[in-house]
Design goal:
This protein is mainly β. The N and C termini lie far apart (40 Å).
């Protein structure tokens, strides 16, 4: 199996740039998951309540449904069709831009999927799930028609794989396993390569791959093979979410939204 080591790429072929940031707002609290969308709206998950704020930190909307169990993940890649995953009952709920339920929820059990922890939004009004039992990535339309399905990625790539996060960019489906690395597939669910990264705080979203090195956030763009370095505006962070031109940082006491220049 051929592994592609990120360090070789970074030292040989990538473009580098160092960006600056300006603080936009702060929100007090500690959160289980955070995100920012392309408009600068902030999202937080705390005590099983999903909240949306504007870029000034003013709360706009909230969503909670304790009858469905715990939320383990939400995806705001499509701000008009936000995905919320309830793994306790194997159900995905869609929310509109006011965090109100939009359309029918999806019962994964009705699709004969009984072990799904990782989901993400897809292009062209679709979403992806990773079937742990079968080791397969499956794309569905919002009307729950199957569009694409991979083979067993564990056999194809000769690895043990259980992703904690995944995201679809303009060209690729990225899935991250803390022990194995990042699997890169095309939009038809064909395996392209495996990237091993020995870095801290690796994140993926539909803008690409991010990690922290030497107090900098490194953005690796799989589509254009380019790296961008962003000097971390503060130290001792707990979590972060980078979606240029916005950077959201969680420290022990608050969320801080920055704009990247």
């Amino acid at each position: 199996m051929k592994y592609i080591y990120l360090y070789l790429f970074l030292s040989l072929i990538f473009n580098f740039s160092l960006s600056q940031t300006t603080k936009l707002s702060e929100i007090d609290g500690s959160f289980a998951q955070i995100a920012v969308d392309k408009f600068g709206n902030i999202y937080s998950l705390q005590n099983n309540i999903l909240r949306k704020y504007d870029k000034q930190g003013k709360i706009l909307f909230s969503f909670s449904d304790r009858t469905k169990g715990n939320i383990n993940h939400f995806d705001v890649s499509n701000t008009l069709k936000i995905l919320v995953n309830f793994p306790d009952i194997m159900e995905i709920v869609f929310l509109d831009n006011t965090l109100s339920p939009s359309g029918n929820s999806v019962s994964l059990r009705n699709l004969n999927l009984f072990d799904v922890n990782t989901i993400c939004s897809g292009i062209d009004n679709s979403f992806w799930v990773y079937d742990i039992a079968g080791g397969k990535f499956i794309r569905f339309s919002y009307s729950v028609n199957q569009i694409n399905k991979s083979g067993d990625i564990r056999l194809i790539a000769s690895i043990a794989f259980n992703p904690v996060s995944m995201a679809e960019t303009n060209m690729y489906l990225l899935a991250y396993d803390k022990n194995t690395g990042i699997i890169v597939l095309d939009r038809f669910a064909n395996h392209i390569k495996t990237i091993t990264i020995n870095e801290e705080n690796i994140k993926i979203n539909n803008h690409g791959i991010f990690f922290i090195r030497d107090n900098k956030i490194i953005s690796f763009d799989c589509e254009y093979l380019k790296e961008t370095e962003l000097l971390m505006p503060k130290t001792n962070i707990v979590d972060y979410y980078c979606f240029p031109p916005f950077l959201l940082i969680q420290d022990k006491e608050k969320l801080i939204l920055y704009k990247i220049y």
